[in-house]
């Protein structure tokens, strides 16, 4: 637990499912004020249940619907946060999408959808949070959700890999630019995580076995393990950490093909 997070206000985009949901619930356990951003009308019930759970944990929460690719929606997200909780301390840009397409068949529309959500959406979240921190002299924290595919090439997912590679240098550049203001900007790069976006893949024993061969620790991670890295990065325990990509992947980026002296 991180006592300094109690009463802090955190926005988490794409927080209705998966890693975003786990982050929201964990910050609730830290007794923070949690703003759950969600996209689809189908997620309203889920966010209502999350709010109840967070309040039962001793935190507070609201849900704000919005599209992270729309500048106006991000501005409104910040405004509703301030209106409800009076301030903003932590911004977690988590919303992301992916789809598998051979690169020579990838349409410009598909490319733009992924880049707009995964990269432009995160930039807008960064920009608006940093602008608020500067205006109110807050030494805030920004956490961007990246992926091991900011490092590992991923055929059939060129738009996704490009977006995550962009997040890496965006995070580092912003961290360098705003370090003198003590605004910390980091990212997390999860590996294979048991989330709804991966549910179909992991339900197939052959596909799951193939993924497990890529993970030296031998198991697929849980969203709560990524949430644990997020609360640490947001806390004062990481006060001297900025510009970092914290890789949480069970060793996937360690060239598992060379395990046991192979190669």
UniProtKB/TrEMBL annotation:
Which reactions is this enzyme annotated as catalysing? Answer: D-glucose + NADP(+) = D-glucono-1,5-lactone + NADPH + H(+); D-glucose + NAD(+) = D-glucono-1,5-lactone + NADH + H(+)
So where does this one cross the membrane?
none
User: Any idea what this protein is called?
Assistant: glucose 1-dehydrogenase [NAD(P)(+)]
Q: Which CDD domains match?
A: GlcDH_SDR_c
One of the entry's Gene Ontology molecular-function terms is: glucose 1-dehydrogenase [NAD(P)+] activity
Query: What does UniProt list as this organism's lineage?
Result: Bacteria, Bacillati, Bacillota, Bacilli, Bacillales
Which organism is the protein's source?
Answer: Fictibacillus phosphorivorans
Enzyme Commission no: 1.1.1.47
InterPro entries associated with the record:
NAD(P)-bd_dom_sf (IPR036291), Sc_DH/Rdtase_CS (IPR020904), SDR_fam (IPR002347)
**Family per UniProt?**
Belongs to the short-chain dehydrogenases/reductases (SDR) family.
What UniProt keywords apply to this chain's record, in alphabetical order?
Oxidoreductase
